[in-house]
Structures are given as C-alpha cells and as structure tokens.
Amino acid sequence: MSNDTDGSIQLEYEIDDRPPWPKSILLGLQHVAVMIVPATAVAYVVAGGVGLSAADTAYIVQMVLLFSGLATIVQAYTVGPVGARLPIVMGSSFTFVGAAISIGVDYGLAAVFGAILVTGFVVEGLIGWQFKRIKPFFPPLVTGLVVVIIGLYLVPVAMEYAAGGAEAEAAGQLGALQHIGLAALVLAIAVGLNMLTRGVTRLLSVLMSIVVGYVAAVVLTFTTGLEIVTFAAVGEAAWFAIPEPTRFGFEFEPIAIVTFAVLFLVSAMETVGDMSGVTAAEGRNPTNEEFRGGLFNDGLLSSISAVFGAFPITSFSQNVGIVNFTGVMSRHVVGIGGVFLAVLGLSPKVGAAVTTIPSAVFGGAVLLMAGMVAASGFRLVITHADLDRRNSVVVAVSLGLGLGIATTPEALAGLPDAAETFFGQPVIVTALSALLLNTFVPGEQSPLFDAVPDSSAPETGTEATVGPSDD
C-alpha cells in the first residue's frame, strides 16, 4: 500500500463508500473475526476471577457481544449527537479487567456495574461535551503515543494467543508446536495475501487467513487426537436468549466509583487515540464533532450495557489495524460487522460456535493487527509532529515508562496496593507522561506556550489539533 505525502494511505474504499453487498458482508465478518475472542475474553477473565457460574459467565459473554454490536452500529451511523460516523468497532476493553476483578471480589459485581453505570457517561460524556476546550491538550503527539502503546501492549497478548492461550497454559501445552504452527500459518497467509495479491483476496486477507487456520485446526484435531477444537459448548448453548436487566443488581461504593472514573478517563484517551489512528489513514485528525460523538458513544453505551450486565464498551484497537492494513475505511462495512455482533449476542449457540476457533489461530491475526496499530500511531506522530529534541524526549520518556511497566510490573511492588494498581497500567503511564510533558514543556505542541489555536479556522477533517501546520 503506497503512502501519500500527507501521511494518508491508499484507500480501496473511503469512509462513505459502499462496497458491493457480498464484499461488504465478508469485510464486516473480518472485523468480527479479529475482535470477538479478545472482546469475549474480558468476560471470561472477569467471570473466572470473581467465581461466577457457567450460566452467568455465558450470559455476560452474550451481553458483551450484543452491546459491542449496538455500540458499533451507533458509532458508524450516529443517533443524534451520539456516534462519530467513523469505521470504529466497539468492544469490551481489557483496561477495566483488573479493577472489575478486585472490586468484584471485595464488593461484589453489583458494585462493579453500579460504578460503570455512574461513571460511564458522566466521565466520558463530560469529556466529549467539553472536548473542544480540552482538545489542545491532546495533540497528535499525545494521541499518537497512546495509539503506539496500545499496539505494543497488545503484542504480548497476541503472542500468548499464538502460543495457545490460557487453555494451553492450563494443560501444560503453552508454546506447543501445533499452536505455534497454526499461528505462523495464519500470519504467513495474511501477510502473503495482502502483499502479493490484489482485489478481494487482499481486502479479505485477515478473514481468509483465519478461515484457513481454523480448517487446519479442525483437521489436526481429527487426525492427531489433540483437543485443539472442541464443540461441546455449542451443543449446550441455547439458540436464543433475551437480555435480563439488573440481573446482577447495583450498589454504589465510593472506592469503586473513583476507580472506574479514572479508568474511563484513560479509556477516553484510548478512544481519542483510536479515532486518530483511523482518520490517519486519510492523513487527517478527527474533527471536534467526531471526537465528541465518539466519546458520547463510549460513555452512554457503557452505562446502558451495565444495566444488562456487560462490561464497559470502548473502541477496539485491533480493528484500527484492519482499516490501515486493508485500506477499507468504509463505515458501512463496520456497521455490518456491528449487526453481526448484535445477532451473536442474541444467539448464545452461534456465539459458542464462533468461540470454538482456537486461540492460536487468532494469535497469528492479532499479532499482525497489534503491529499495524502501533505503526498507525507512529505515522500519526511523525506526520503531525517534528521529532526535534523536545518531542523526541517526550516520546522516549512516555514509551520508555510504558514499556518498562509492561515488561517489568514487579518494579512497582513497593508501592501501596492502590498506587501499584493505578501505575501498573502501561496505557495510563504512557498517556499521563505524554500529557504532562507535552503540556508543561515549551514547544509547538504544548497548549500553554508556543501553540496558538486558530479559533476562526473551520472544523474540517484536515484541521490541526494544536501545533504545527499539516502543510
């Protein structure tokens, strides 16, 4: 894919383009295929951490899929001021996993969902409402670094999937040849089809690689006797299930509310970074309306989903990678993906069938997507910020601290538990470091010193957030 001089990439389909229906359906399925395992993994991890029954776990998985789909549809098409009209797939974020488990164990899931209900729209809604005022504090240098650390932080997760995931680790098979082989097969096919072919095979390279990997996994299961693919959960799942409001109840614990308020602030920064990563494919930054609508969607749908027992719904970075990898930016494709997710959320049996795809197969695809997310973040930084001495120091400190925490979390063992939990999040550390350094160190990207926002400039997609001109 060739790069244009403004940092954009060559797009096969632009944001309002409508590919033919057969191609749109397959492209939408590709988005679903890449995000469904990590999105539902949040539900499995939290449910296991707090000791939920199999029935409650299956229900939470169902609600995560349903509200991921609804939020994706709203993001693509908008409902009033809610939604950005951008091709952003929504899903349950790992940002909230640690807090959900610790608060769920100490206070119960009712306190978790009560905190999400209160802080979701209050925090992200307030940020979205006032984003035009705080926008100068989030120039491409800051948001780009958030995108970079999200992508880099996903790499170890992808590698764990590629090695077989939690199931393989529990069975003592983590890194077994069959898992690494499947992940390598998926990665090789995705890269080969994208780089060496044209047309539909290039556009659907990720989906086709997952399909080939899944078929290979099924063949291995039946020819070697290894339990790589199991279908027991499909037979046990119901065909249709209706959401149950307040199934887990609500409690409003101050500690839980404060914790989730901070995490929603970080989630907002992730969403800002993901939105910037998507529009970077067009060589621009999101407009104020896009930022506001996207953040409204994050907060409102997260609060509504808590009523039905789903964890916070936010933008999914893996799918930002798909947009940049395939050059398909059509929001209508993503909207179709949202419909598929919502249908899966209403049919536990279909969802169970999809989750039979082995972790190793997804690992090969997610590894590629994580790298593409990081690459889109780097492109955002390089395109809109000169890497002079000042900005290079901001990049070095922010990424150094973030990756340091990600690779050596035990370095914070001496801190109080609350501080260790807070500063043990690589995204939080990178985001806060970039935000503070960029704000208080003089430079063109700083909102307090050399940068002078042009209040008379029209809100077009090519406006600079704050800082040097895009020209």
TrEMBL record:
Localization per Swiss-Prot or TrEMBL = Membrane
Q: Segment Disordered: which positions?
A: 448-471
The principal location of this protein is membrane
Gene Ontology cellular component list: plasma membrane
User: Per the UniProt record, which residue ranges are transmembrane?
Assistant: 25-47, 59-79, 141-164, 176-196, 203-234, 333-354, 360-381
Which keywords does the record carry? Membrane, Transmembrane, Transmembrane helix, Transport
Gene Ontology MF terms:
xanthine transmembrane transporter activity
Q: What protein family is recorded?
A: Belongs to the nucleobase:cation symporter-2 (NCS2) (TC 2.A.40) family.
Q: Quote the protein name from its UniProt record.
A: Purine permease
Q: Which organism is it from?
A: Natronorubrum aibiense
Phylogenetic classification of the source organism: Archaea, Methanobacteriati, Methanobacteriota, Stenosarchaea group, Halobacteria
